[in-house]
Specification:
- Helix content is 28%, strand content 22%.
- It is α+β, with helices and mostly antiparallel strands.
- It has one domain: Glutaredoxin.
- β1 and β2 form a beta hairpin.
- It is globular and about 45 Å long.
Length: 178
Amino acid sequence: MLIPRQKAPALVVETLGHGRFDLATERPERMTLVCFYRGLHCPICANYLKELDRLTPEFAARGVATIAISSDVEERARQMADKIQAKDLRVGYGLNLRDAREWGLFISASRGKTSIGIEEPHLFSEPGVFLIKPDQTIYYLSVQSMPFVRPNFAEMVQAFDFIVKNNYPARGEYTGTV
């Protein structure tokens, strides 16, 4: 189980137009927001990523780099980027499902075509949102087994202002006896 304040697992993926993303070499001013999404087949992901793209400049102004990552192949990732008209959001693809498991992501099996008529991959990861500090430690994490009811990026931007102003620590780090 991943724990805040502990080192994040390795994460290396190719991106559309931004070269290779390697979390170990990321150097954001404050944090990197990693948004794992299900893939092109997911209409909820498209709306969610559109909002993240819209707010990426707000995150950047606060020293937070953003990236959205799926296990989709390059062509499907490009179709998603086109669908959401990505301008500022980096889009990564080819997430190895073993790496997805290391990140604590749930894995689902295909149920055929989705409501928008796109075939699901044989296996794919479910959503997760992480804030990773420059020292590679986990500040925040939210992992889901379903595509519904995800963390709100607009609220996260506001929360980030509070975090910085109050030097608010990562929470959920206690692993002792209860």
